[in-house]
């Protein structure tokens, strides 16, 4: 399912976004803050009334090298939930493309690391989780309309314990 790109097509208001250069600069500053403080700043726990920030480390689908990004998340029981968006830009984020190729990854939360396995929520699960995000971001539907394709809701489930001899 695709969503309309512009709110004018549906008669709804399209939320304002800062210019792309500003979004990219904000990401760079956030990552620099995380690095310069040795990870002590830049991540925070999700709460019922606000999303948190985690560092997601994937395996590059082409390079095979580790790639890290900081994304917003919410908790859903033992699972972590994020949205596969690239600052609401049109392209799919590289981290989501990497997870589709290799779903096992690691997340760094404010209280420590966790190994997880990613999947895209579908059907009722997607609807339920989208509604949870909507309670935290009143402009969510309008922002999603800016993208030419549906924004994936990504579920990060705890990875099963490895069975090494």
UniProtKB/TrEMBL annotation:
Reactions listed under catalytic activity: oxidized coenzyme F420-(gamma-L-Glu)(n) + a quinol + H(+) = reduced coenzyme F420-(gamma-L-Glu)(n) + a quinone
Domain of life (superkingdom): Bacteria
InterPro entries: F420H2_quin_Rdtase (IPR004378), Split_barrel_FMN-bd (IPR012349)
Residue stretches spanning the membrane: none
One of the Pfam families matching this protein, by short name: F420H2_quin_red
Entry GO terms, CC: plasma membrane
One annotated GO molecular function: oxidoreductase activity
Family label: Belongs to the F420H(2)-dependent quinone reductase family.
Protein name listed in UniProt: Nitroreductase family deazaflavin-dependent oxidoreductase
Protein's organism: Cryobacterium zongtaii
